[in-house]
Prior knowledge:
Helix content is 24%, strand content 31%. It is α+β, with helices and mostly antiparallel strands. Strand 1 (38-51) and strand 2 (58-71) form a beta hairpin.
Amino acid sequence: MLxxxxxxxxxxxxxxxxAHAMSVLPLYLDEIINxxxxxxxxxxxxxxxxxxxxxxxIVTYSTFEVQEVLxxxxxxxxxxxxxxGQVQGETNQTMGVPxxxxxxxxxxxxxxxxxxxxxSPVGLxxxxxxxxxx
Length: 134
């Protein structure tokens, strides 16, 4: 009985404490560079979404003309595959993939490629958390 009373008191005390929003520390340039497997400056050539035959997920492919390699080994063009996108005629759409404007130049710092072929910009999860906070 005493344990139950203490438990109820602790729960009551905890529920009166203010809730804090999740905070995300910014990534510094040296952290971004260290975390990246490859980095390059490139011009966006094309984006398209489709259902990936390997994972059955909707994915977006973004292809870049590599203008300057900053880290790692990158060919004349480089395509990244990310989870998310919109496929015409599909009812199950996923959002949240970064969009690259065709013709614009970008500096990309990318994590390594997963066994399923996915790659994403370093710090993307941080941006998603910050955007969801509003």
